[in-house]
Amino acid sequence: MKQNIYVGGGFDPQTFIYLAPIIKGYTKNKKYNILIEKKDFYNFIKKLKKKNLKLQEYYNLQNIILFDTNEIRFKYIIFAILKIIKNIFFFYKLIFFFSYSDKKNLNSIFYHSFLDSCFQSLKGKNLKPNLYLRVKNLFKLLLVEASTTDLIKNYKINTVFLAHSVYSHRIKLEIFRKKKIKIFIHANQCIFRQPQNKDLEWSFISKKLFSKISKKFKKETINKFWKKRLSGDLDDPDYLKASKIKQNNKFITPNNVVFLHVFKDSPFASIDKKRIFFNYYHWIIETLKILKNSPEKWSIRIHPNAGVWGENSIAILDEIKKKYYNGKLPSNIVIDNKLTSNLNVFEKFSRCVTFRYRNVNSTISF
To answer: 220-239 pLDDT, tens per residue?
Structure first.
């Protein structure tokens, strides 16, 4: 009997270009069907045509099964209703007493997915989702849980490749984990195995694996990569945009810089249950409270690609200023909204603050 590989979680067509041969190699000499979301697959086909590539170079068409886990079915709605009834107090608190700092729910995967999805759907200057968005995302997550559970019942899935481990896809991840299914996650042009009992990110790597990989590359190749990265000369929208910003002659770059994240983005690729800050909103609000007492100048650097996410970070900061600082930031804090390039910032700064631990070189692109 053939086993099945599920490929989903929001892969974009460009990622599929290099993911497809990897999956093909993974299934070599094995009897597998490839389960792919219809939307992802058709977008992939369009991308191949634009690049004058043929599908046969990536997959055997006979091994592909197309489906749509986003399809709303009556039995999924019944599943959602029954789950709400069974957990009425938990869901009632989520909806009517919304909080992104509920310490009692730090062990709840559903709580983290709910936060993720709510903040991702925020628009404009809002700091919290309204009642409509809370209810909408609650049902969305329950339908994802129902469709993923149904998918596993109908197909003997051996392995999954997920584009994301956050938002509603975290629900899928946990369901696959409970069924002891092999999970591979894609992030930042990296595909890695996700363990059953803990979260890994693309930047988490053991010394043993790092040593093994390092031996496969010449030092000249590694140095060439970092030289290109530090110059902003990489084929990545974040790198390119952040490094090519022209210097505003009126702006004097402070020695201390806070690099903002995209507020809508998820901080839960790995869930740290002992974390100090609950999300990017909580982090910047509390960080500003600390920095206002600093005797030094600080700049708050807007993420250069926030607009691509449909986010107006300035409007969000304005709302934070109104709520916590009577509409005006402390005099030692300035906003850097594309006033200088990241390369210039990294040449001059003394202190750099980000949401979580990261090597400074990996932050330069943002």
So the answer is: 888 887 777 666 565 565 65
Residue 298 pairs in a beta bridge with 256, 333
What's the average model confidence in pLDDT over 116-120?
90
Q: Report whether 53 contacts 16 (CB < 8 A).
A: no
Share of the chain above pLDDT 70, in %: 86
The sheet carrying 157-162 orders its strands as: 64-67, 32-37, 3-8, 157-162, 182-187, 190-194
Amino acid identity of residue 277, one-letter, is F
H-helix segments, the chain:
13-26, 38-50, 74-86, 88-96, 109-120, 131-154, 169-178, 207-214, 219-231, 237-243, 280-291, 313-325, 342-348, 360-363
Residue 359's pLDDT is what?
41
Crossing angle (nearest 10°) for helices 74-86 and 131-154: 120
Token pair 């069974």 in the structure block, residue: 86
Q: How far apart are CA 185 and CA 192, in angstroms?
A: 6
